[in-house]
Amino acid sequence: MYRRFVKRGFDIILSLLGILIGGIPMLIVALLVKLDSPGPVLFKQDRIGLNGKVFKILKFRSMCVGAEKDGVYSDNRDSRVTKVGKLLRATSLDELPQFFNVLKGDMSFIGPRPPLTYHPWPLEEYTEHQRRMFEVRPGITGWTQTHGRKDVEWHRRIDLNVWYVDHVSLWLDLKILFLTVFKVLTNADNENKGATVVTDKQEEPVESGK
After folding, report:
1. Closest listed residue to residue 149, CA positions, set 186, 189, 114, 179
2. Beta-strand (E) ranges in 72-195?
3. pTM of the model as a whole
């Protein structure tokens, strides 16, 4: 019941509130992005969502236009990140436009972060166990983000995501929400350390979520 109906109801209400309350801050951020560097205010990117469906995730642009062609990973020393972009990433304000993704139904507030269509690997290369992470809507934050955020290796991330799918509940979502707020306020684990994909895919699930 919670997973199918209540969770979606909360998403609609909270995303509407987020858009209303965050409207002025988002306009200010949009203006700063526009003044800081040439290019669009929003960054749109294909991500894999519920049941493997591809959707456009929305973010405030934090890098120079065309930066993605030079690689996936970046850190606070990456010259592709704009001055305003560094602030947006440190405060996670670049994620605010995803309120619209949640309202539309592409995403949830809590769920597995949606991967790129080509990274860590294409959808058809996920194992049957790994594809279970797409049984729920992807989230702005999730169980994985409370266990290290950007420095967690991808096989581990996916195992944590599948664990969430098997244990999703109101209380777990509240726990993830509070832990995420703490990590955002302390900026914990919010920097890419480098590649987080190992060569061989892991076929058997690893017990996680303790």
Report:
1. 189
2. 108-110, 139-141
3. 0.85
